[in-house]
Amino acid sequence: MPIAQQGKIFVNKEAMIENAKTRDYECHKKAVERGQQTFTLVAQDRSSPKTIAFWILENIETAPAEKLHEALFEALIMREHPNRKNAD
Question: What is the pTM of this model?
């Protein structure tokens, strides 16, 4: 998980990616069980990081810090995807 130190955030990237594999599946599974609609963002879509950034902005005052850090991490990883393009 991110660790704040002197105004910077340090992340164990490999651990976050491994954790995301299980977490994403579990979140989707719980939403479906509750009858909630879901929408998946993929790294290849150029708008994904901006969409996540907007979610962070809208939830900055109410979401737990860990969830905000997680969202920012995902957006930054998506931004680095080598084959980004506009949505199909």
Answer: 0.72
